[in-house]
Specification:
The structure is a homodimer of 268-residue chains.
Chain A lengths: L5 E5 L5 H10 L5 E5 L11 H17 L4 E4 L2 H6 L1 H6 L5 E3 L1 H11 L4 E6 L1 H6 L1 H9 L4 E6 L3 H6 L6 H16 L4 E5 L7 H8 L4 E4 H15 L12 E5 L6 H9 L6 E3 L6
Amino acid sequence: MLQKPIGLFDSGVGGLTVVSEIIRQLPNEDVVYFGDVGRYPYGPRSKDIILQFTRQDVAFLREQDVKFIVAACNTASAVALETVAGENDIEMLGVINPGARAAAETTQNGKIGIIGTHATITSDSYPKAIHHIDSNIKVFSLACPLFVPLAEEGYQDKEASYLIAQDYLKILKENGIDTLVLGCTHYPLLKKLIQDVMGDGVTLIDSATATAREVKDHLEQKGLLRDTNPDPDYKFYVSDVPDKFAPVAERFLGRRVDNIIRVDITKY
Amino acid sequence: MLQKPIGLFDSGVGGLTVVSEIIRQLPNEDVVYFGDVGRYPYGPRSKDIILQFTRQDVAFLREQDVKFIVAACNTASAVALETVAGENDIEMLGVINPGARAAAETTQNGKIGIIGTHATITSDSYPKAIHHIDSNIKVFSLACPLFVPLAEEGYQDKEASYLIAQDYLKILKENGIDTLVLGCTHYPLLKKLIQDVMGDGVTLIDSATATAREVKDHLEQKGLLRDTNPDPDYKFYVSDVPDKFAPVAERFLGRRVDNIIRVDITKY
């Protein structure tokens, strides 16, 4: 069991920010990643479809014989994880609870903003998770659907992106939040832009770091954390042709990525 | 055969611009539309995946017993239609050839621009279709991936969209085109913006009108055009929950839309 890899999945490439933190914080673990690039994005779809896709992603990772599953996707974590975890006898962690805990620990004035996809915001998962920790915290949630395509098209530094960010974030600024959760794994690519618009008084929470820390704690408690592994193995599976995935994965991970295998996820 | 409906499919809602023109130009025809909203967008995906999705879309429409199939989606038309038409014994038309013919008839200076998704532009289908008509025409093709999310998020009139359009279209202006094909069924929603950026000297071609005209000609030639139908029937099928589709469909079609049925397209 100890020797088995950690499995992560995401609707596409965004979850690689979590993989990157797992590799940094848990350097002796093998990792299997599934990126559903053939069916991304999850964010604008219904609960039904997200549930169906998440079940298939988890079934695929289980077949890879992983010891622990991380939903490295805010939308899947927010909308489907609880249900799918209840249907499976393997432990799973999403990015919502770690992000919520990090935000609740960070806020000084008790006002937290959440930005994410339509599905994540509609699910109300972040406010529920935060209120579970401290029911007095005020939470302001906002869908920012254009942030994903802007990040993917390399529009991080453009004037147009700045205008769109100002449009979206104005209402959060007006409400005086001091902490903002980047509730979508793509948003860290726009971190500088979002920080510029929000100003230095607002702390941005990127759930990748918090999630990797909680995965580590969890595996440690269960005696499942490897303390040696001279040559850790990283495998990447995708649901469309791998050629577009490779350069993006290398940019996210800062290392050469060789093992990218295509699978037909609809068969799971 | 004559009484059977016309079938149309698209990756989502964009193809409704073609449905709207079919209803206007062929008022006695019944129509069945399939919108693959559960798996849109097609534009950034590989040829392989687009081929798989198109095969399923066509199989579903065939089961609806239609007399003619229209690929009301530029990406599917550009990447997959020729192959899928070769595998089926029903007649099909895409939006590429009608758009190409309309552009070739329109240009005065022999310089045509094409804008579309990554997959449409990579397929080179528009230049091939135009050169088949007149090999002397110069064609300038450009992917504008942010136009779809901007159109969907209602960013038609925003300064940010204007800046992005200027960014994208600059190179087409510099090359002195006098005709621009809107090679994606979403782009007509940004028509005013694109016309503003390109200037009055450039004629925009929206394939919906040209495609409906060619469908009419074709059915007429085959003796399959109905000349009376007091109560034409319009059915809409989608691959995700229908509630988001209804208001968009009503906006596109300018009429109340009742018959929206969800299907599991992955079973086809």
